[in-house]
Specification:
heterodimer, A: two-stranded antiparallel ribbon, 11 helices, B: mainly beta, 1 helix, 32 strands, 8% helix
């Protein structure tokens, strides 16, 4: 990843922020098959939502039957409720690798710069030429030092929280179960806040990766599911959606 | 970015009785997602901490009279008895919250000890008492060792500038701005001050007023101080090369390529030029730039070699201090004999048949020059 970042930096106008954007696009392209699968799974879940709610109403008093019918519905439509975990699992090593690479590539301290020397492929002629011309890399982008965490007015923190929240919201599936809805809502709030907190601790370069990756994820999702959960009315606790729909159906 | 898993709707909790197994499985899936996020959080924090390279600095020991002066990983300056290693005084010259050590080695003269800090300060301490006499704030980290030329102190900084300060009170005489950070030190001879910058240029400045006399563009950034001998200027670059220039005109005489960056200040003696490279090797060249001999260690060689009592002495990232015959390249001794201690990135110094060096992380050693046998050691930054 270090040599790739240096290469992208030299190709993209000696700009490290653009190098991170380029890396993000590359990673998105590589993981596209898995992401596409997961997005279609989300779409299918969202489309199944009314049927799931109908099943819930029908088998309200027979939980075992409800579970059987629910799993049958999933199987018939090829939906895997656990499939969405995989993209997150794949992204984790990327985040960790990028976190470490940014510090070494930017060489803010002499030790970091010296460590960089041991990772550059000096024996590959074109990489040697790029390295000798560009290193040490310029860590400044606008008012950010990309090796340092975001500072006031915390624009990157806000962007990270917003993009995470938007993605979660778009892929949310309404639930008739109040407890489930509550849990989903908690996750939808906690995850963006957690990443917002991380953004305060990690380099701005990693935060830029999260923002760009989030925006690309939103665009990908829009073309598959539309606005998804952003438009869908979540199930409210204590009311039956079936009854609510009947009341709406005025003639 | 992670895409959020669409949460599957669950049947309501049973009010009493045993839960069906499949219901329990779905509940476990929800818990798994939360656990997954928590584990990720933990992993990111841990790996983030683990991935951070320590910044302990590599200040070299300097002996003046019977006192050894050195900077420490926690920003303290020590004065030790050079014979016994006993501490005479200790002064902290960085902020309380600073986590970066001292890279600058002390420069000693006129009763004062001068060092730079990563916070950008140049500090002058009373050599006897360890009291701060003056401070000068630059705009960036001071990594290189300052040098004294008469009553003028020359300092380089990460704010791209070279400063000439009055040594007695720290007032600025002049400054010169280059195109990038300066982490390397200076060389001074015949009225010219030579410094290398991360912009890849070796500058020759008038020492009186800082006006540029000439500059030379190398193939990569310059991170170390140049050396001068018999009218020839030698310096290393991050293009893996050692250069030899005419010190008056800046014309290139020759260049020699290694397999990694040259961050070591060369040592010149008679007909030989000695330097280390981050490719783990120590090189001996003749004055025409031809390789005479080389030796490969198991660690990067950042520090500069030292010639003392007929030996070439240098430290390596593999944790050994080596002593070689400078003519033949034959190893005479190494310390420690077996195993390796912490890496040695600072440059050793010699006084009265004793070699002094510091290992990475803060231990100072004194060895006999002739055989490398230990005399004393001192651990800096130790509480109590």
């Amino acid at each position: 990843m270090i040599n790739l970042l240096v290469l992208l930096y030299s190709l993209l106008f000696d700009n490290f922020a653009l190098a991170i954007v380029g890396l993000t696009i590359l990673i998105r392209l590589i993981t596209y098959p898995l992401t596409r699968q997961q997005l279609h799974s989300v779409k299918a879940m969202q489309e199944l939502s009314p049927k799931l709610q109908a099943l819930q109403k029908k088998y309200e008093k027979d939980r075992e039957k409800l579970t059987q019918e629910t799993m049958k519905l999933y199987r018939e439509h090829g939906v895997n409720p656990a499939g969405g975990c995989l993209p997150m699992l794949i992204q984790m090593p990327v985040w960790i690798g990028l976190y470490q690479s940014i510090y070494q590539v930017l060489g803010e301290t002499p030790e970091q710069l010296m460590a960089l020397s041991q990772h550059i492929y000096h024996s590959v002629p074109f990489l040697y030429e790029i390295a000798r011309r560009t290193i040490p890399l310029n860590s400044q982008f606008l008012w950010w030092n990309l090796a340092q965490p975001d500072k006031f007015p915390y624009i990157l923190v806000i962007l990270v929280v917003v993009t995470f929240w938007l993605q979660q919201k778009m892929s949310a599936v309404p639930s008739a179960d109040p407890q489930q809805a509550s849990m989903s809502q908690t996750m939808n709030i906690m995850m963006p806040i957690m990443f917002g907190f991380f953004t305060l601790q990690v380099s701005s370069g990693l935060a830029i990766y999260w923002v760009v990756s989030g925006v690309l994820g939103i665009i990908q999702q829009y073309f598959v599911t539309g606005w998804g959960g952003l438009r869908a009315q979540p199930a409210t606790s204590g009311r039956e959606d079936g009854g609510k729909k009947k009341r709406r159906g005025k003639r | 970015m992670a895409s959020h898993q669409a949460l599957s709707p669950l049947p309501p909790f049973p009010s009493r009785g045993v839960r069906p197994r499949s219901l329990k499985r779905r509940k476990n899936l929800q818990k798994t997602k939360i656990a997954l996020a928590s584990i990720f959080a933990f992993l990111l924090l841990i790996s983030g901490c683990a991935g951070q390279i320590p910044a302990s600095g590599w200040s070299s020991p300097i002996v003046a009279g019977d006192t050894l002066y050195i900077g420490s990983p926690r920003g303290n300056v020590y004065a030790l008895d050079a014979t016994t290693g006993q501490k005479r005084w200790e002064v902290k010259i960085v902020g309380e919250k600073s986590i970066i050590g001292l890279y600058s080695s002390p420069a000693v003269g006129e009763g004062l000890v001068y060092l730079g800090t990563f916070e950008g300060k140049v500090v002058a301490l009373d050599a006897e008492k360890g009291v701060v006499r003056w401070e000068f704030q630059t705009g960036g980290a001071v990594v290189a060792t300052p040098i004294l030329g008469g009553d003028t102190l020359y300092v380089t900084s990460s704010d791209h500038k070279v400063y000439a300060l009055r040594a007695l009170d720290g007032s600025k005489i002049w400054e010169f701005k280059t195109g990038a950070r300066i982490w390397g030190g200076e060389a001074l001879e015949n009225g010219l001050l030579y410094i290398g910058s991360f912009d890849g240029r070796l500058y020759a400045l008038n020492e009186e007023n800082g006006e540029k006399v000439w500059d030379f563009q190398a193939g990569g950034a310059i991170a170390s101080a140049p050396s001068l001998a018999q009218g020839v200027l030698y310096f290393g670059s991050l293009d893996n090369k050692l250069y030899a220039l005419d010190a008056r005109s800046g014309e290139k005489i020759w260049e020699f390529k290694t397999n990694n960056w040259v961050w070591s200040q060369p040592q010149v003696n008679g007909e030989r030029v000695y330097f280390g490279s981050l490719d783990h090797k120590i090189y001996a060249l003749d004055r025409e730039g031809n390789e005479v001999w080389t030796f490969e260690t198991e660690g990067a060689i950042r520090s500069s070699p030292l010639l003392a009592q007929g030996l070439l002495i240098f430290g390596s990232g593999d944790g050994h201090l080596y002593a070689f015959d400078p003519e033949t390249g034959k190893e005479i001794w190494r310390f420690p004999k077996e195993g390796g201690q912490a890496a040695i990135y600072s440059t050793p110094s010699v006084a009265q048949e004793t070699i002094y060096f510091a290992s990475y992380g803060g231990k100072v050693y004194a060895l006999r020059v002739e055989d490398g046998s230990p005399l004393w050691e001192f651990e800096m930054d130790k509480e109590g």
